[in-house]
Specification:
258 residues; Rossmann fold; alpha/beta; glycosyltransferase
Amino acid sequence: MITPDFDTVNVGGIRTACVGRKELAALVGNICEGYAQRHQAAPFVIFSNNGHAISIYNADKQAREQMDQADLVHADGQSVVSFSRWFKHARAVPERTATTDMIHDIPNFYPGTLKHFLLGGKAASVSKAADILGQTYANFQVVGHQHGYFGDAEEAAICDAINAAKPDVLWVGLGKPKEQLFCIRNKSRLTVPVIISCGGCYNYITGEYPRAPMWMQNAGLEWLFRMAKDPRKLFVRYLLTNPHAIYCVLKHGLAKQG
């Protein structure tokens, strides 16, 4: 098993990697290279941390146990970067590594060609995202994709199909906490070097979900932009999870300081 060297910081109870975008992309590529060389058995699982994740982690025991089994948790939200600097930690997260950027960062910052399998989302969305990524990056080879509307009884067959395609990276976009549960539950079935949870990433690639202006992203306000675009779906979620996440960050941070 490859054990990359990176520092972590406690953000809302979640051990979050202190890595930047280029470093994370290189780490993924190096793990994929090392997998072939060492015949590594277990996939390296990467989950994301943001306000929603912090709230779920502190409210749901099962989700917390799944998150704790990740090999690396990165700062998907700008708020996590800010939270990591609230207390006198020896380390802090250097920059946001949004999953919607990471799927582009890997082919941009890692020169080698990697094979990818996209799992999750609607059939039309994941198929279109696969076409866009494959056409945009010569070193992003899509070897398969599968929509996310399947039942538990179908998981074994889906895992077999993923293994048969032999991807280097499996992207799992089923939404929190379902995607974390899928990754950990099927980790022993999958013979892929890296698994990355990616939420609604495919919809951003296709343009179905617009990204916030850069100033809002840098200010940690992308959640506000998303809520304004889809208030019926996201207003209650952010109304509940954002204050809870801040409370959890303070609780864990102050406990550590004490």
